[in-house]
């Protein structure tokens, strides 16, 4: 498998996708990387204010999981 660092930037980019489902799944995938996704925290925090409540919830949960892992 690829190291988490190779997955991080593409997943961060997917947080900007126009499709709500893609943003939700990118948040979930980032949370699965745990502490390795710490660089994504500013992006996830920004999306915790997403107008779509599903995206906001997923981003907030992902940020919490990454912070807890650290």
Secondary-structure topology with pairs:
Layout: H1 4-14, H2 20-32, H3 41-47, H4 53-69
Helix pairs in contact: 1-2, 2-4, 3-4
Structure description:
The protein is an all-alpha fold. Helix content is 69%, strand content 0%. Helix 2 packs parallel to helix 4 and helix 3 runs antiparallel to helix 4. The chain is globular, with a radius of gyration of 11 Å. The mean pLDDT is 92.
List keywords for this structure.
70 residues; mainly alpha; 4 helices
In short:
The protein has helices at 4-14, 20-32, 41-47, 53-69.
Poorly predicted parts: none
Shape: globular
Quaternary form? single chain
Please state roughly what percent of the residues sit in beta strands, choosing from under 5%, 5-15%, 15-25%, 25-35%, 35-45% or over 45%: under 5%
